[in-house]
Amino acid sequence: MPAHTSRPLDPDAFPPALREAFLVLQAEVAGLRARTARQDYLIAGLRHALYGKKSGQLNPDDRQLAFEDLETAVAEAKAAADADVARNADGTTRRPAAKRNPGHLPDHLASASKW
After folding, report:
1. Which residue would you say has higher pLDDT here, 37 or 66?
2. Does any domain span residue 111?
3. Which whole number is the average pLDDT over 83-110?
4. Overall average pLDDT of the 47-71 stretch
5. With pLDDT > 70 as the criterion, what percentage of the chain qualifies?
6. Please, which residues have CB within 8 angstroms of residue 63's CB and are 6 or more apart in sequence?
7. Is 115 part of any domain?
8. SS3 of residue 60 by DSSP
9. In the Cβ-directed half-sphere of 47, how many Cα atoms lie within 13 Å?
């Protein structure tokens, strides 16, 4: 059995549907790598603020600023993850679920309005 050699894949050799799925997955992997790099950068900055050479000399305001930057980045990452989840298989964004309020219906109609 020949040893496996690492060669780049040629997407042009794939059938069209498989090629499209392959390219979508490649883009997703690139996005995840970028997100991981950003998170690694933020974690390194937080570690430096907490345990760096002059971390004992930081005043509470500077330390709080580092935590606020991290909280902002976490919120951005969560929003990006939520946006990724809210996409269909073909990459288009989903419409948000309808927020229906049947209002104050009589009892005999309120049970019929529940799906």
Report:
1. 37
2. no
3. 66
4. 77
5. 68
6. 49, 50
7. no
8. helix
9. 6
Give how many domains the chain has, as a whole number: 1
What does the block give as tokens for 114? 């529940």
79: in domain: yes
Residue 93, SS3 per DSSP: strand
Query: Rounded to an integer, what distance in angstroms lies between the CA atom of residue 99 and that of residue 115?
Result: 13
Q: State the pLDDT at residue 1.
A: 46
19-54: per-residue pLDDT in tens? 888 888 888 899 889 888 988 988 888 888 778 777
What's the rounded Cα separation, in Å, for the pair 68 and 60? 12
* Closest to 17 in 3D by CA, of 87, 93, 90, 94: 90
Residue 85 to residues 62, 81, 98: CA-CA distances in angstroms? 35, 6, 17
42: domain range? 13-83
Say if 94 falls within a structural domain: no
- Taking the chain, what is the end-to-end CA distance rounded to the nearest angstrom? 59
Place of tokens 């970028």: 34
